Amino acid sequence: MIDEVFRAEHGRAVAVLTRVFGDLDIAEDAVADAFAEAVRRWPADGPPPSPAGWIITTARNRAIDRLRREAARDDKHAQAALLRAAGEPDEEGAVEDDRLRLFFTCCHPALTPAARVALTLRLLGGLTTAEVARAFLVPEATMAQRLVRAKATLRAARVPYQVPRDADLPARLSAVLAAVYLLFNEGYTATAGADLTRPSLCAEAIRLGRLLAALMPDEPEVIGLLALMLLTEARRPARTTPDGALVRLPDQDRSLWNTTLIAEGHDLVRWCLRRGSPGPYQIQAAINAVHTDAPTAADTDWTQVVALYDQLLTIAPSPIAALHRAVAVAELSGPAEALVEVDALDLPTHHLFHAIRADLLTRLDRRTEAMAAYDAAIALAGNEAERSALEERRKELADE
Fold it and tell me: Are the CB atoms for 353 and 380 separated by under 8 Å?
């Protein structure tokens, strides 16, 4: 129960408390104290009627108690935070949502682009350091050091919690979009745990995407990200069986796809196409539009999918995009050509790299190599549903 509340409400609580006190460190420490108190009290007393409200109220009270003690020692910073909490007016600006405002704050130019995204995911996305590390394909210890350095940089630069001016929003937009998309990805395929998905994270990412679209309705990449999330989310009901087992895209019951989200996503993709200013999120949305436009897997226009991946790799080259392009190449030109492309990639710690290799090797009847690739994928898969699916495919291959 407490784990679920933490994942769902940690980011919102930090955002609310940061607005109240004007200090990220105070907010983060207070929320941590509140969750520690929940661990002590809820097992015996039972959860409160509104767990999120309890966490925010407890965190606020703990922070005020701490600041009063510090203010009594003539701590000017504590006195200022108390004055703000007592009702000094909040700064007005373009971003009205607490959580979205803090997304922009964490994406301050004082940090490197990667640090902005990582810190945002950790503080506001409710992701653990290990989950953020997996999103960046780096060891957990490396990510922990990066997060510590990022917060130290914000403190040293005396970055305040404030709403960015309208003129400052575009410079921070790229990192905010990346953070929102990684938050969505963690919800769509959880990096760890028994369940394949975490729907609350998907819903929050889409909510933030809609806020961004309302804030910047003429930014094609904002609209492209929203379209991408909607078209991806539309397929989620068909991704698992009733008992939670993973269902691959070719095997999904497409009647379960959310046609309302698909229609909205297609409309947004068409809007982006009319603007004629393609970016990575728009192209990925277009790829998903092709998939969701096909009534069956066999009807997928793989030529168009490969062409779109070619465009994506020209604009934003990445090994992950190249890996997914290879999947499309396998459908268009066969597994042998696709395997050549996959083997040229350097993704030894990414379980999907080994899973895709295993599938291609199986289709080429190279069973021994395929089973070794499945073993590598199984060892790296943190999500139990993904790992179970890989184990089942390996077993089927071994039993043939």
Answer: no
